[in-house]
Amino acid sequence: MKYSIVIEKTDTGYSAYSPDIAGCIATGGTRQEVKKNIKEAIEFHLEGLSIEKQEITEPPIGRLYGALQSSGPPVTLEEMEEAVISGACESDYA
User: Fold this and answer.
1) The domain containing residue 38 runs over which residues?
2) Which H, E and C letters describe 46-79, residue by residue?
3) Number of folded domains in the chain?
4) Per-residue pLDDT tens for 30-73?
């Protein structure tokens, strides 16, 4: 699964969060470091949900992909992500 992440520049480096996962945040001195840290934070969070036998919901990007596949001509995930990424704000995926 792919989760959206938002990376913001701060006075001391970068911060990141996933709007798809409440409370999942990370920081780093560089953009590369914060991307690595948020990926690890998401993996850790999902592992905890799995251990606790809690539901892991499909991220919105996955739900949108499923809806597109079932309602029209085939669309690749890459084509759909490109359409989302080319919107008004910058996005990354972990």
Assistant:
1) 4-93
2) HHHHHHCCCCCCCCHHHHHHHHHHHHCCCCCHHH
3) 1
4) 999 999 999 999 999 999 988 989 888 777 665 554 544 455 55
